[in-house]
Design goal:
Elements lengths: L28 H7 L5 E4 L5 H10 L5 E6 L6 H5 L13 H18 L8 H18 L15 E2 L20 E2 L3 H19 L5 E6 L10 H23 L3 E9 H6 L5 H8 E3 L11 H13 L6 H5 L12 H6 L6 H18 L13 H22 L7 H11 L1 E4 L1 H10 L10 H10 L3 E5 L8 E3 L16 E3 L4 H4 L2 E4 L4
Parallel strand pairs: 1-6, 1-7, 2-5, 5-6, 8-12
Antiparallel strand pairs: 3-4, 8-11, 9-10, 9-11
Helix pairs in contact: 4-5, 4-6, 4-7, 5-6, 13-14, 15-16
């Protein structure tokens, strides 16, 4: 067994830089739902574990399991945007272009990775059509997905598919410019989806994953239409595959605040039937952040996983209010892995500042003073995390933060808040409304409201991060700033009482 002085860190906040992710992966229900083809839309707050699941699925390749991931780091959106179909509702503008991209991705898997192909006589005929179309159009069986909509390409399908041309179309069927794809994409996809899905081996697993869709996020109609089109295309192909008995999933990983922005006709059907939320320490999941951290502590300390938290944290010594250290830290997170990892890393850093290596021959655990000393750095991190999410939703967000700093206390009433807004009105937009500001702050869990007879039977503060379905209550008797922001905002525990 190692000592805490021998440990450098408990992992990284960013999944891409987390060297313990693979070794300490937690089998969350959202991961199991995706892996078993039960749910295709994985949503959660930034840092909740979406990319961890995405990376895990991409690594689990085998002879009978295939996956391809789109993360859009350098994706040519300008080319994709040219594929918008005109004359259809906004939510349908990119539906066909996403279908085409997904089908091309599946074609790459079938033609280059799946060595069981063709798995049957039917698949032989279907796969031959796919192969001729891909080779004729892109000059290779393994085209770069970033170049799928490249204008230098021409669609060629005379030897593969029978296309019913629009009445007004006079194009050469042997070489249709990519710019004309929107005019015939429905026919192209109709042929492609039948051939591709028929070629899929029913005994194997196939995954096409879409992550980091928030890169370049902007609250615009074009952006929202793109996302809606992807969700509809993914559902359509998943349903068709399931109907044919194929274990094929088009998986979408999306931030919940972005999903909330989307409005389209079938959203409730998708939400009820196909959404899997990544949550920790709620009544809707059996997974806890303590379990997640015990995996990491077990590895770095070389101890059994069960009870690893207590090997590192002295839970016999209670925090203020008789809280144990886990609950004290949990209350200061947004119930996300990255928050608990960051907080524990800061506790570790404080522990090392307080002790000298070799000071004690016996194993020494984290004490209250280590947790307390870690809170300011952690609090600064938490606010920085919020800074990454809110500004594109609420451009005046920084001014709202200044109002919270002026509140001085964690707990306050609507009247307190209105008075503070009045004092700072010179710094606020003319149209600023205290209730609208509070609602925005609640939406991103900077504040919660007091509710009598909460879900546990007693009174409690309601926060959006704990209950994504919670709605703002303007009639609440009091509001409370999230405990994790206390240090960075400079507010106190006492209840504000303005005269």
């Amino acid at each position: 067994m190692k000592t805490l002085m021998d440990v450098n860190e408990l992992g990284a906040v960013d999944a891409d830089a987390d060297n313990l992710l693979e070794q300490c992966f937690e089998d969350h229900e959202a991961y199991l739902n995706a892996k078993s083809h039960k749910k295709f839309l994985i949503i959660g707050r930034k840092g909740s574990g979406k990319t961890a699941i995405y990376r895990k699925l991409l690594r689990e390749k085998s002879y009978s399991r295939f996956s391809f991931g789109h993360d859009f780091t350098d994706y040519p959106w300008h080319l994709h945007n040219h594929q918008a179909v005109v004359g259809v509702p906004d939510e349908q503008k990119f539906f066909q272009s996403w279908r085409y991209l997904i089908l091309m991705t599946l074609s790459k898997i079938l033609l280059n990775q799946d060595h069981s192909q063709p798995y049957s006589d039917e698949a032989m005929e279907s796969l031959a059509k796919v192969e001729r179309f891909v080779a004729d159009t892109y000059g290779t069986l393994n085209p770069d997905v970033a170049q799928i909509f490249s204008p230098v390409r021409k669609l060629r399908f005379k030897s593969s598919f029978e296309i019913t041309w629009p009445v007004k179309m006079t194009l050469n069927a042997e070489g249709v410019p990519m710019s004309e794809l929107p005019s015939i994409v429905q026919e192209v996809n109709r042929n492609l989806v039948e051939a591709v899905v028929s070629s899929v081996n029913p005994d194997f697993d196939y995954y096409v994953c879409f992550d980091q869709l928030d890169l370049g996020f902007e609250n615009s109609e074009t952006y929202k239409s793109r996302l809606i089109g992807l969700l509809l295309a993914a559902r359509e192909i998943n349903v068709k595959a399931a109907e044919k008995g194929k274990k094929l999933s088009i998986l979408v990983f999306l931030r919940d605040d972005i999903y909330q922005l989307l409005s389209f006709e079938d959203k409730n059907k998708i939400t009820q039937n196909y959404v899997s939320r990544i949550e920790w320490d709620t009544q809707r999941t059996a997974r806890t952040l303590k379990q997640l951290m015990e995996k990491r502590l077990a590895v770095v300390l070389e101890v059994p996983e069960e009870g690893a938290w207590e090997k590192a944290f002295d839970e016999d010594e209670k925090m203020t209010g008789r809280q144990n250290k886990y609950q004290h830290m949990l209350d200061r997170t947004f119930l996300r892995p990255r928050d608990m990892i960051k907080f524990t890393n800061e506790v570790l850093a404080a522990y090392k500042r307080h002790r000298t290596y070799g000071q004690d021959s016996e194993f020494v655990r984290f004490r209250n003073k280590d947790v307390q000393a870690a809170r300011y750095e952690y609090s600064s991190y938490l606010l920085s995390e919020i800074d990454d999410e809110i500004p594109k939703h609420y451009p005046d967000y920084q001014k709202y933060i200044e109002i919270l700093k002026s509140m001085e206390s964690l707990q306050f009433t609507l009247e307190d808040f209105q008075k503070t807004c009045e004092r700072r009105k010179a710094f606020l937009p003319v149209e600023a409304n205290p209730l609208a500001i509070l609602m925005a702050l609640f939406q991103f869990s900077l504040i919660g409201y007091y509710a009598l007879g909460g879900g546990t039977g007693g009174s409690e503060y309601v926060y959006k991060y704990k209950d994504p379905t919670a709605q703002f209550n303007e009639a609440a008797s009091s509001y409370r700033i999230h405990a994790g922001l206390k240090e960075v905002l400079g507010v106190k525990n006492y209840v504000r009482s303005d005269s």
